[in-house]
What we know:
This protein has helices spanning 7-17, 32-43, 66-74, 94-106. It has 110 residues and is mainly α.
Amino acid sequence: VSDNWFFDTYHELKERVAPSENVIHPLEKLSRAEAAFWIYTLADDDLETLRSPLQFPDVKSKDPYYAAIMWAQEKGIFQGYPDGTFQPSRILLRSEAAAIIDRMRRNAKL
Length: 110
């Protein structure tokens, strides 16, 4: 990984998101749940300010990314699918990434 163009960014992200864990795999695909977790962690926001419960039937409170998905939904960064699901294991598509980046850009608090 160290000889790739993204190494410095990868290393910085890893240190901020999970310095003691091996959770960032730069050459693997990224799930929607993982993306929500990274964004939530980097935003360093407070869960205490969240008001509404999570609306996705396929994300349970015991799931490891629950808090991040709940936060990302309330902040308007992530949206569900027309069937009402979040599909946390689904691979994040480029079109979804573009929409997420645009929503983050519009949210001045991030």
